[in-house]
Design goal:
With about 170 residues, the protein is an alpha+beta fold. It has 3 helices and 9 strands, in the order E-E-E-H-H-E-E-E-E-E-E-H. Helix 1 packs across helix 2.
């Protein structure tokens, strides 16, 4: 599977805007978590995280979005940041199979500051990083030849390494 971004949706309620995206990523959610929950990960594709205390009610400063608090934190699943002037930014990871994950993204904000095109560009960058051989900052490098960690042992009679003279 390669990454994909479903068409974003946008809702407006008075002066409040809500953007939603569904992003499919060809990595396990545990491997994607650092991209949404660490300064190095966010800085690689979204915006610099000058401050990020990884816990509920921790301080957060996202350079292009604002400063505020961590308003939801469920390790490997949910990171939500509510920042002054930038609104509520929620990353919710789900399993998408043995070696894939789904990112459900919500950005709730006031005014005209954010746009679907801005977030789509960010998610395109995230997909590029996830699919690259180097992988995510702070995460495990991607090895496309490696079976998923939960793939189980090789079939009986199947050698673990190539036999002498065997082509690989």
């Amino acid at each position: 599977m390669s990454g994909s971004i479903a068409q974003g949706t946008s809702q407006t309620h008075g002066n409040t805007h809500i953007l939603h995206f569904l992003v499919r990523l060809p990595r396990r959610m545990e491997d994607v978590w650092p991209a949404v929950a660490t300064p190095e990960g966010l800085g690689a594709w979204c915006t610099a995280a000058d401050v990020l205390e990884p816990r509920l009610d921790g301080a957060v400063t996202l350079r292009d979005l604002g400063s505020g608090r961590v308003t939801a934190w469920d390790v490997d699943r949910v990171a939500e940041y509510t920042v002054e002037g930038g609104g509520r930014i929620r990353f919710h990871l789900e399993r998408g199979g043995d070696a894939e994950s789904i990112l459900r993204f919500t950005h709730e904000f006031q005014g005209e500051r954010s746009s679907e095109a801005d977030w789509r560009r960010r998610f395109e960058r995230l997909i590029e990083i996830v699919e690259s051989p180097e992988g995510l900052p702070g995460g495990r490098p991607r090895n496309p030849a490696e079976p998923p960690e939960d793939a189980g042992p090789p079939e009986p009679g199947e050698p673990l390494e190539p036999l002498p003279g065997q082509f690989t």
